[in-house]
Amino acid sequence: MNVFVGKTVYPGAAVGKAAIASYVKCKHDGLYDASAQKERYFKAKGLVKKDLVSLCANEFSNDVYDIIKSYILILEDEEYDSFVSTILEVERSSAECAVKKASEHFAAQLKKSGDEYIKGRVSDVYDLSDRIRTTLKEISEPESVQKEEGPVILVSEYMSVTEIIKRGKENIAGLISTKNTLHSHASIVARSLGIPAIIVNEIEDISTLEGSSILIDGYEGKVYINPDEETIKEKLSQSAEAVSYDADIKVYANVQSAEDVAEAIKNGADGIGLFRTEFIYLGKDNFPTEEDQFEIYKAAAINAAGKDIVLRTADLGDDKTPAYLETNGLRAIKLCLSMPDMFKTQLRALLRASNYGNISIMFPMISSMDEVAEVKKILDEVKAGLRDKNIAFNDSIKTGAMIETPAAVEISDTLAKEFDFFSVGSNDLTQFTLGVDRLNSEEEKFYNQKDPKVIELIKTTVNAAHRAGITVGICGELASDVSFMRELKEIGFDYISVSVPVLERIKCK
Ligand code: PEP
Ligand code: MG
């Protein structure tokens, strides 16, 4: 029996067989399994080639035949395949991203040629790359998450939000990771789902654990490899210290599904302070349609039973990047504004659902008045479109801004005139105030949501909101630190918003 000591993400004891996570983190391009992405690439390329070959059966002029044939030749180029494969293996990027990089690389080489004919092939390379990428989007992700017998202990280096969501809570007994951080979105998801989870830096090669029996003791922050029966029995019989806190402030809940909304309300939540809608995108193999989203938001609105429910527009990007989303390095509202069709689809679904409950819309990572103007313009356009089609929605729906950058705090007086409420995202506010990457385990010791500078910015935000007469809550993890609840009330928050398991430790009024 080997024992490792680590940091607890979520307490609790669990035992199961180790399964090594399929996804590997790539900071700027999501989380991808290289062999699964290669499979997608070759499949997409095969489909594009089949299309081109069948085109040759048509009657074209010789020029057109030549172009189609040159396309086929590029597709047969082994150098191109090997470049794509290397990117997939080394960078663990998505197939879409690897194809883009490959085409840029080969186009750059062609551009250097003195031969005008060869230079002219640059647009062919780009055209083909577009065709492969469009085809890739039509191909769903291969089933990279294999089904194991019973719930497993999922072991990874960087924990993937996508993998947790795709496997589902019922299939995961516990989580171990070696390079994850306490404030990553994967850790937040583990806590919100109540899955025992530990970060252990000392395990060097996680692949050696595949299939081993593993015991997680999240109360003591220990991981046992091949534990004996006695230890399993002893650790599984422990239970959490039952300290409960009296809430003398409104307590809302942070959720990620319509079912969570029902559970939170059942557990006494005064409302829903943060519905992280990006998880809907992460659980799918392609963009969720307006109808998909409408059904989820409508169910969420109904499950909130007349209480406030704040839905945050997709905070995608960084560690929340689905494979089908070709990343451009942007995150949250900046990503949505760069993809207006995706943003409008979500806004339409949200507005339509506003007819079924007390929905507000909140925008993540707002940091300038230009962004606010753009967001409002798009929201107005979407509203006008619904009005034109006589589709019912709440025209005076409340909107809010997440305050999670020092820039947003700086302009909080002006921002407060544009929104009905603020919600402080202390997770990102801490990262951007202290210059500490919340996904880098080496920097974790510098990450402190109670740092005096962070608290000062939080107070500035609360005061600005109240000066303008709008509501202000906090939905970052600082709100889930129940021992800090009194201070948050003293700072002047109108409500705190905590993860669902934390609700059980709070006696709501
Ligand atoms: C935050 O940054 O505090 C927040 C609630 O948003 P997220 O953790 O989803 O980035
Ligand atoms: Mg945030």
Quick structural gist:
Helices cover 45% and strands 17% of the residues. With 509 residues, it is of the alpha/beta class. An eight-stranded mixed β-sheet has the order 1-10-9-3-6-7-8-2. Strands 12-13-14-15-16-17-18-19 form an eight-stranded parallel beta barrel, surrounded by six helices.
SSE layout:
Elements: E1 2-5, E2 7-10, E3 13-20, E4 25-26, E5 30-31, H1 34-55, H2 62-75, H3 78-91, H4 95-111, H5 116-120, H6 122-138, E6 152-156, H7 161-167, E7 172-177, H8 185-193, E8 197-199, E9 213-217, E10 222-225, H9 229-236, E11 245-246, E12 250-255, H10 258-266, E13 271-276, H11 278-282, H12 290-303, E14 308-312, H13 332-338, H14 340-353, E15 358-363, H15 369-388, E16 398-403, H16 406-410, H17 412-416, E17 421-424, H18 426-434, H19 452-467, E18 471-474, H20 485-491, E19 495-499, H21 500-503, E20 506-507
Helix pairs in contact: 1-2, 1-3, 1-6, 3-4, 4-6, 10-12, 12-14, 14-15
Attribute tags:
21 helices; Enzyme I, Chain A, domain 2; TIM Barrel; binds phosphoenolpyruvate; alpha/beta; 8-stranded mixed beta sheet; binds magnesium ion
Structural features, described:
There is one protein chain. By secondary structure, the chain is an alpha/beta fold. It folds into two domains: 234 residues, PtsI, HPr-binding domain (Enzyme I, Chain A, domain 2), CATH 1.10.274.10; 266 residues, Phosphoenolpyruvate-binding domains (TIM Barrel). It is built from 21 helices and 20 strands. The strands form four sheets. The chain has an eight-stranded mixed sheet with strand order 1-10-9-3-6-7-8-2. Helix 4 packs antiparallel against helix 6. The chain is globular and about 80 Å long. The protein binds phosphoenolpyruvate and magnesium ion. Magnesium ion binds next to helix 18.
